[in-house]
């Protein structure tokens, strides 16, 4: 490549320092923001806010139905209220889970 540049009589390239310059941050920052908004619209998290103490067992059983947790793990998860029960689900699935938790005596929200 240097021999070709000499033969064609091209000027020598100077290295330009980009230190302190914010190159392409406007275009780069706009792209991920759009992608994040799209991801938020299609994937939701279901969070258990609280539950009735008398319905604790029902809530634990319901949590076990849509997670692959054992009894002890589900109990520990429910006792850590407020806690995210399931991440990255569709809106329909999240609404279904929230309704089941509500029927069992708990309060869940979609984030």
Automatic annotation (TrEMBL):
Pfam families: Ribosomal_L12. Residues 44-107 form the Large ribosomal subunit protein bL12 C-terminal domain. One of its GO terms (molecular function) is mRNA binding. One of its GO terms (cellular component) is ribosome. Keywords: Ribonucleoprotein, Ribosomal protein. One of its GO terms (biological process) is translation. InterPro entries: Ribosomal_bL12, Ribosomal_bL12_C, Ribosomal_bL12_C/ClpS-like. Belongs to the bacterial ribosomal protein bL12 family. PANTHER family: 39S RIBOSOMAL PROTEIN L12, RIBOSOMAL PROTEIN L12_ ATP-DEPENDENT CLP PROTEASE ADAPTOR PROTEIN CLPS FAMILY PROTEIN. This is Large ribosomal subunit protein bL12 C-terminal domain-containing protein. It comes from Lotus japonicus (Lotus corniculatus var. japonicus).
